[in-house]
Specification:
This protein is of the alpha/beta class and 623 residues long. The protein has 20 helices and 29 strands. Helix 2 packs across helix 14 and helix 6 crosses helix 7.
Length: 623
Amino acid sequence: MFAEHRGMLATDLLDTMPTDAHVTPTPEPSPPTRTHHEAASAELGAGYLLCIEDGSSHTVPLPGDGELAIGRDPECAIRLVDAQVSRRHAVITAVGDGVRVTDLDSRHGTFVNGERVARPRRLLSGDVITLGGAVLVVHRSARAIGVRTVVDAAELATRLEIELDRTLRYGRAVAVAVVRGDAPIDRGRLATALAADLRPIDAAAQFGEREVVAVLPELDGAAAATAAARLLAIVGGGRAGVATAPHDGCDLDTLLGAARGAASAAAAGVIAAAESDVLRVELGDKVAVAADPAMRRLYELIRRLAKSDLPVLVHGETGSGKELAAAAIHHGSARAKGPLVSINCAALPETLAEAELFGHERGAFTGAGQRAGLLESASGGTVFLDEIADLSPAIQAKLLRALEAGKITRLGDNRERAIDIRLVAATHRDLTLEVAAGRFRQDLLFRLNAARVVVPPLRDRRRELILLAEHLLAAGCKRLGREPLRLSTDVVRALYAHRWPGNVRELKNVMDYAAAAAMDADVIEPWHLPDELSALAGEPAPEPLPDDAPAAAAPPSGEAPRFRPIDDEVAELERARMVQALMACDGVRNRAAALIQMPLRTFVTKFKRFAIQPSEWAKPRAR
């Protein structure tokens, strides 16, 4: 697994498992320029809630300690307005290794993934909390380990982490099947049936009263679906979902979330693949792909907002897909047959911005002819103003007047002309901070902020990463007139390891580069990627030259060092330190764990994983 995953158990999944990694807080960026999501990450690296209510959305960081009260009470940290929400409806509490949600005896109840919360429940990445008409989507940062087939939740997480590590290292297949029964499942009967049906390398555990999760190594596609069908028969009715690594995810949260999403979407008695839970929205000549729970909820919100004529403000980092969100609003509205005019405000020179937006008459300036502006030409349709924070205060004032009056005045003219537009604006900046700094008009912000949509960055949408990469790679191959290419396991590893500061736009450029660089290959390998990504694959290697190729020039003196995967080096260091600690403590594990400040449960787990033998730490007896 990647370095950030090594030494960490799946604390998002389990109540009893310790955390053995210390998270270093991300330094907070300077307030005037931080983005919406960067601000949330800076305040709390554990993750955030995407809150969707009353036609708008915003993010709230998950608590690192203490709790977040939810309700209509003004003193609640997450204040909702829905009439079905109680004054103090529920509370999200930080525990040692995660967060839980607890219903506070609310009148209409709190639901997680459609199930009513009866007692404190641990929240996983992708969980959907429903309180009346409000929806909260959980995002947690991705986590980074004798064979029994029927195990508890802790051991299932360990087994899955081991299999995912094998997937990334050796390209071996692993599937996760989730079966949800129509009725409560008898644990004793289930354990007996699973022990008889599963292979020795499989593992399964029961979650709650109606859910069974199975880890199925070396199975993919049809074989995994067949195994899931047997599990469904054992449960005695329900529905099932199957997700496979690396296509559907390469970490526990993502893969399990994909399988659960497929099970939720499946019809009764049906085994659905994770691919069936992918939302694809046709937007003219573009296609929006959404599989992450937050993105699916986002497009559901967009579908509802599209039916009105409210202005919409789209927040998101550069390249995260704000233009696709604007296109979805336009194509889902009654204005879909009208024009969609996109304007990048950052690219408009300040001296020409007024003429471009509002138009000009002949003689308005040197060489000027008569021309309708972009706002006027979009009449009957939608105007998308990208990076609206880059407009000057004077243009902001004129834009506000145009939105309020529904009229514009061309440069060099004194006549008002009626316009009929729906405005969608986007920015990667926090406009509240821009208002405080005097760079953005507060009245314009109020006008634009009638409805708000938050687009998560690509690094928070791990479920979609490979789906988007394959989609963009296929489009790149089509433009080049060549057959579609596949991604190798090493390339998948590199894609997951990268942070994607440029988001989907950066991913598109990488896939276009790979499609062009692969030449006669059928599979994209690490050496087909740009240098900064190929190094993340663990085994960067040049493409072999033909035998008759001329010899290359000698490299400059000072040969570059050979690199190994960082997680291998970390594992070796951990093992060496554990052996040294055992030697110093005469083999007493709890003392050795305390000596190197490692939680005892983690120490015991790694002791078994590293196969440490007594002969390595036992001191020779004196004769």
